């Protein structure tokens, strides 16, 4: 399984927020997308997910070009996103949120029981309304909801935002369970050290463009690419 | 003594209003479309049923077997191809389009039918009644009330227990995220539109048996359904049922004390709810 | 940065644009000429134009409320009826002079609008639309309770019986003309004012407007009441023309149909739009009146097409290339004493500045 992003650009109205992004991810790999606020990280994920239309370039999953597909079509192909802010359905229970996650119709290792094993937090709160939970519980539910759809690629948008470090560590520890089943992970993260600790590849964005990409990069290089230095 | 009878008549009348209001509640709550054509759809269904019964000689109730699927299909197409475009942004386009549809339906009916009042009959059932002391329960209104309860029960189960129902509830909260889960919102909206119009059809035919109707009856049907939804609270199915009962009782008890002013009393009760309890009986505050 | 600050000549912003410098005097001239109409043509034509003027008043009042205030009411017929009944009561039963009665009738409608607003404002959007319709029904039901108001069959107007028929038609025409001018001037002034700016903000985003200091409820209420007054006056004028107050006809939702369609087809949110819509509606009615329901169906289809595909109406289509404004509600900036910069001439469709 390969996800390829080729020369992707996207924007909001007259603002081009993303320019000429290219990378590829294999099964079981973790790609960390880092960058300062406003660099275009969430925009990139949304464009891959299909919520935002690409202006140029393509998104190719396993050789199939999905660039023209709607977000729901891409989800059914296995490109699933855990959006920024979690976006659970507040008046539905945790269980109902998860049941909706199964709408992709995809078969695989993940179902209600197995995600509950992975996230005991979720298992204990199946009948609680999603809107009445803490940040960590909601985040676990949001990830579980995406997993239950059996993704080929799961995209995590800032899962550590607003959460206590101890809980974030628990999420990161579980990434291995996700990748060992062959799912690729695209991880948008503000916390660079955390991202580097799990990532196979790093892609750094600066003002909508790639400033650095690769494997086994050292921290100094990344710092330069993250902030930019005014010399271009 | 009349009062007790009036209350029961009102409850049964409320049962009829509830059937009608159910579809409106679905459209309001799910699709956030305020459909001004809802009443016209009910009248349209009533006329379809009327012609069907005249052509086949079957009972009006059996005509539902044909009219309901027809109207559901119509509702599906209307939502999918016309109303879908009015979603999002300002309410004005949906108000205009649905109002326009109401005008078109009403005037098409005025051309194809005569302007006078019609009514469908179920033969002996029309006048049959159970006497319980001072209370006289018409067989048809009572049957309708029970049917209404069943209908709401089924709808409630569908919304609460089925994947479709979950999708409907999710879409009304956050449509873009629903897409991320692999659900096509347009499909959900289209089926919700179909169900809403099926309910309008049932309500329209049921009403056409109980009272007379004409091409211009759509306005009042819409108003009663709307009042029921507001009194009950937007977004709550059983709230709508309760609201319909309150409206029915208000009208009949009102008519008891102020003869021929029943409808006005119903309106006044609606206004009181709107002024002092805008979130309705169910208490859910919903942003429009 | 240590460069010396450059001299900047003072900028003057005026509300008059190139087209409105031409347009407004032209419209004023048209109105002046129109005063002479009864002397120039047959009275049946005058009658007809009176109807057009009534449509313009109704359209611009609905547009004020919906296009600028963001409130789409399907219940303005309440104020037509209130204005009509108010006029008859004032002129016949209280002996008020008819010219004063017309304005007072509007005021009556305005007061009721003020009271109604406290309930109606509980609803927004489509709920507000149906809610106002219900309220109009209630107003009708209440008014038809009173025997002194003729119950369900209404009452006749006698205050005009001192006028002979020709003079009556002319007088109602002149009143309509005067009120139309007043209505348009009111719209222009309201929109021009800071109040008008607040209104546009309320229409676009009430929450943002509120946090910017706009008193949202006060703004909406004012517009609602002004619209009610104007609509009420129109109701009074209708009564002068028809000599009779008929509740089923005056409180009919068909009036809302008329107002909405005019504004949508003409162009919502502009002052010119309702005028265009009124002319079109009036023209169609003259041509197709005999066709009754067929004509309404046509209207319905046209309105739906516009609502789906041409949301800015006809005036919106005209404005696509350049922003015209017949009335002084646009903006143009002039720098110092010399060059006048006019946004209408500055940007073509590509956004490039074109040589002045």
Provide a descriptive summary of the structure in words.
The complex is a heterotrimer of chains A (232), B (288) and C (356). Chain A has 232 residues and is α/β, with parallel strands linked by helices. Chain A has a single domain (2-227), classed as Rossmann fold (3-Layer(aba) Sandwich), CATH 3.40.50. Chain A is built from 9 helices and 10 strands. In chain A, helix 3 runs parallel beside helix 6. The model of chain A has no long low-confidence stretch (mean pLDDT 89). Chain B is an all-alpha fold and 288 residues long. Chain B has one domain (2-228). In chain B, strand 1 and strand 2 form a beta hairpin. In chain B, helix 2 (38-56) crosses helix 3 (60-81), helix 2 (38-56) runs parallel beside helix 4 and helix 2 crosses helix 9 (218-232). Chain C is mostly helical. Chain C has 16 helices and 5 strands. In chain C, the strands form 2 sheets. A 3-stranded antiparallel β-sheet of chain C has the order 1-4-5. In chain C, strand 4 and strand 5 (340-341) form a beta hairpin.
Q: List the secondary-structure elements of chain A in sequence, H or E.
A: EEEHEEHEHHHHEHEHEEH
What would you say the CATH architecture of chain A is?
A: 3-Layer(aba) Sandwich
Topology order of chain C in helix (H) and strand (E) letters: EHHHHHHEHHHHEHHHHHEEH
Approximately how much helix is present in the residues of chain A?
A: 25-40%
CATH top level of chain A?
Alpha Beta
Which structural class matches the secondary elements of chain A? alpha/beta
The rounded Rg of chain A comes to 17 Å
Summarize the SSE layout with pairings.
The complex is a heterotrimer of chains A (232), B (288) and C (356).
Chain A (H helix, E strand, L loop, with lengths): L1 E11 L2 E12 L3 E6 L5 H9 L4 E8 L2 E2 L5 H7 L1 E4 L11 H8 L10 H7 L1 H5 L10 H13 L5 E5 L7 H15 L4 E5 L3 H7 L2 E6 L2 E6 L4 H9 L5
Chain B lengths: L1 H30 L6 H19 L3 H22 L10 H21 L16 E4 L2 E4 H23 L1 H11 L1 H6 L4 H26 L7 H15 L4 H21 L4 H15 L12
Chain C lengths: L10 E4 L3 H18 L1 H4 L2 H26 L8 H17 L4 H23 L4 H19 L11 E2 L8 H28 L1 H11 L1 H6 L4 H27 L1 E2 L1 H4 L3 H13 L5 H17 L4 H17 L3 H6 L13 E4 L4 E2 L1 H4 L10
Helix pairs in contact in C: 3-7, 3-10, 3-12, 3-13, 4-5, 4-6, 4-10, 5-10, 7-8, 7-10, 12-13
């Amino acid at each position: 399984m390969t996800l390829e992003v080729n020369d992707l650009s996207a924007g909001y109205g007259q603002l081009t927020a993303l320019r000429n992004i290219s990378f590829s991810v294999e099964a079981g790999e973790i790609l960390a997308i880092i960058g300062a606020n406003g660099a275009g990280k969430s925009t990139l994920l949304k464009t891959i997910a299909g919520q935002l239309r690409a202006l140029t370039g393509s998104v190719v999953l396993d050789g199939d070009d999905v660039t023209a597909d709607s977000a729901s079509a891409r989800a059914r192909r296995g490109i699933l996103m855990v959006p920024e802010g979690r976006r659970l359905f507040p008046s539905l229970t945790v269980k109902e949120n998860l049941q909706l996650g199964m709408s992709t119709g995809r078969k695989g290792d993940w179902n209600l029981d197995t995600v509950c094993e992975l996230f005991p937090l979720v298992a204990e709160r199946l009948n609680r309304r999603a809107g009445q939970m803490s940040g960590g519980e909601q985040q676990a539910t949001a990830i579980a909801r995406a997993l239950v759809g059996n993704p080929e690629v799961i995209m995590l948008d800032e899962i550590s935002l607003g959460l206590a470090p101890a809980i974030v560590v628990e999420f990161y520890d579980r990434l291995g369970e996700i990748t060992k089943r062959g799912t690729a992970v695209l991880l948008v993260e503000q916390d660079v050290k955390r991202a580097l600790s799990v990532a196979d590849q790093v892609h750094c964005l600066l003002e909508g463009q790639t400033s650095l990409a690769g494997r086994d990069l050292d921290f100094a290089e990344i710092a330069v690419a993250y902030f930019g230095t005014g010399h271009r | 003594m009349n009062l007790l009878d009036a209350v029961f008549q009102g409850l049964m009348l409320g049962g009829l209003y509830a059937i009608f209001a159910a579809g409106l509640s679905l459209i309001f709550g799910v699709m956030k479309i305020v459909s001004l054509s809802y009443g016209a759809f009910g009248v349209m269904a009533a006329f379809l049923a009327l012609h069907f019964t005249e052509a086949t000689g079957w009972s009006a109730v059996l005509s539902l077997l044909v009219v309901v699927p027809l109207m559901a299909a119509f509702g599906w197409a209307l939502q999918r191809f016309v109303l879908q475009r009015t979603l999002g942004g300002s309410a004005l386009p949906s108000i205009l389009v649905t109002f326009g549809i109401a005008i078109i339906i009403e005037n098409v009916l005025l051309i194809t039918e005569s302007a006078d009042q019609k009514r469908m009959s179920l033969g002996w059932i029309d006048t049959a009644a159970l006497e319980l002391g001072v209370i006289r329960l018409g067989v048809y209104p009572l049957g309708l009330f029970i049917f209404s309860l069943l209908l709401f029960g089924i709808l409630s189960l569908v919304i609460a227990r089925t994947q479709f129902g979950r999708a409907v509830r999710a879409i009304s909260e956050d449509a873009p995220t629903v897409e991320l889960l692999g659900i096509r919102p347009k499909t959900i909206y289209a089926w919700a539109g179909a169900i809403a119009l099926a309910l309008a059809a049932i309500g329209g035919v049921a009403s056409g048996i109980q009272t007379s109707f004409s091409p211009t009856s759509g306005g009042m049907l819409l108003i009663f359904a709307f009042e029921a939804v507001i009194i009950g609270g937007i977004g709550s199915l059983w709230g709508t049922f309760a609201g319909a009962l309150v409206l029915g009782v208000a009208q009949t008890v009102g008519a008891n004390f102020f003869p021929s002013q029943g409808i006005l009393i119903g309106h006044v009760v609606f206004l009181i709810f709107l002024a002092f309890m805008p979130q309705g009986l169910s208490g859910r505050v919903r942003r429009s | 940065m240590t460069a010396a600050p450059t001299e900047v000549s003072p900028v003057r912003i005026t509300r008059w644009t190139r087209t409105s410098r031409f347009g407004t005097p032209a419209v004023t001239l048209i109105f002046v000429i129109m005063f002479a109409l009864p002397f120039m043509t047959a009275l049946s034509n005058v009658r007809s134009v009176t109807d057009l003027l009534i449509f313009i008043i109704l359209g611009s009042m609905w547009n004020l409320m919906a296009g600028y205030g963001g409130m789409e009411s399907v219940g303005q017929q309440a104020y037509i009826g209130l204005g009509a009944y108010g006029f008859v009561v004032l002129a016949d039963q209280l002996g008020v002079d008819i010219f004063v009665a017309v304005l007072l009738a509007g005021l009556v409608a305005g007061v009721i609008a003020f009271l109604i607003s406290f309930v109606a404002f509980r609803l927004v959007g489509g709920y507000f639309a149906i809610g106002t319709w219900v309220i109009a029904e209630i107003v009708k039901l209440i008014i038809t309770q009173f025997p002194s108001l003729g119950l369900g069959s209404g009452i006749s107007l006698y205050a005009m019986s001192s006028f002979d028929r020709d003079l009556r038609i002319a007088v109602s025409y002149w009143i309509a003309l005067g009120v139309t001018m007043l209505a348009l001037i009111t719209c222009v002034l309201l929109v021009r004012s800071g109040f008008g700016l607040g209104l546009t903000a309320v229409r676009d985003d009430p929450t943002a407007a509120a946090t910017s200091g706009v008193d949202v409820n006060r703004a909406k209420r004012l517009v609602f009441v002004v619209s009610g007054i104007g609509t009420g006056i129109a109701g009074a004028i209708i009564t002068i023309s028809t000599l009779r107050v008929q509740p089923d006809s005056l409180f009919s939702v068909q009036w809302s149909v008329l107002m909405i369609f005019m504004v949508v087809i003409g162009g919502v949110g502009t002052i010119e739009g309702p005028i265009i819509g009124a002319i079109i509606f009036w023209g169609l009615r003259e041509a197709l009146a005999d066709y009754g329901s067929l004509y309404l169906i046509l209207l319905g289809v046209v309105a739906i097409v516009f609502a789906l595909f041409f949301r800015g109406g006809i005036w919106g289509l005209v404005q696509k290339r350049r922003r015209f404004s017949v009335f002084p509600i646009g903006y143009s900036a002039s720098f110092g004493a010399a060059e006048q910069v006019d946004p209408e001439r500055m940007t073509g469709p590509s956004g490039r500045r074109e040589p002045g």
